[in-house]
Amino acid sequence: xxxxxxxxxxxxxxxxxxxxxxxxxxxxxxxxxxxxxxxxxxxxxxxxxxxxxxxxxxxxxxxxxxxxxxxxxxxxxxxxxxxxxxxxxxxxx
Length: 93
Fold this sequence. Notes:
The chain is mostly helical. It is 67% helix and 4% strand. It has 4 helices and 2 strands; from the N terminus they run E-E-H-H-H-H. A two-stranded antiparallel ribbon has the order 1-2. A hairpin with a 2-residue loop joins strand 1 and strand 2 (16-17). The mean pLDDT is 87.
């Protein structure tokens, strides 16, 4: 589901790296990592994936997130799935 980095190479000419190709590779790597985080959040809990992703990427606590978005579960359930997210992410990497 990510960008195939095998098709992107950093061309070298006279020992200078093609900066455009290097930037493209870095952007593709970042894109792939973000997709992994999104997939893993939804794998941890499909109903709470959106909230887990917000909490992780924006460093928002349950209380703040719940005040903004009314999370459809209790704190204990949320943090159980939050921990599951990090466990799954660790397994994936």
